Amino acid sequence: MNNIQAYVRLYKKSLKITCGIINGVCSEVTVYVIKRKDVNFSFLYVESRKNRIFGDCELLYGIPAKITNDLINAVIKIANEKSIPKEIITFIDNLRENIKI
User: Rounded to whole angstroms, what are the CA distances from 101 to 24, 26, 67?
Assistant: First the structure.
């Protein structure tokens, strides 16, 4: 994933993910992110998929506000290196412009 690759390139360290709580979506992408001041993923729990809130291939990604712009820029750089379609890069640029930090 470009997000993980961008993180590793930007911070020169492996991404450490904390997960595994049965109903831990909020703690995994909110509490851990605030407490550790670092990114984290949630692979979601069965009920969130069962109720069709999230699909089988979705996960959530919590990012501290202070590093959001740096990570977005790193993801865009990787996308440009991989010749990602222009529509996706435009979408990411628009997303970045709408984030107020």
Answer: 26, 21, 10
If pLDDT is split at 50, 70 and 90, which confidence band does 16 have?
A: confident
- SS3 labels along 28-64: HHHHHHHHHCCCEEECCCHHHHHCCCCCCCCCEEECC
Largest CA distance in the chain: 38
SS3 96: helix
What digits encode the pLDDT tens for the residues 41-79? 888 777 666 766 777 777 888 899 899 999 989 988 888
Give the separation between CA 95 and CA 98, rounded to whole angstroms. 5
Show the tokens assigned to 15: 């991404």
DSSP letter (8 states) at residue 83: T
pTM of the complete model beyond 0.85: no
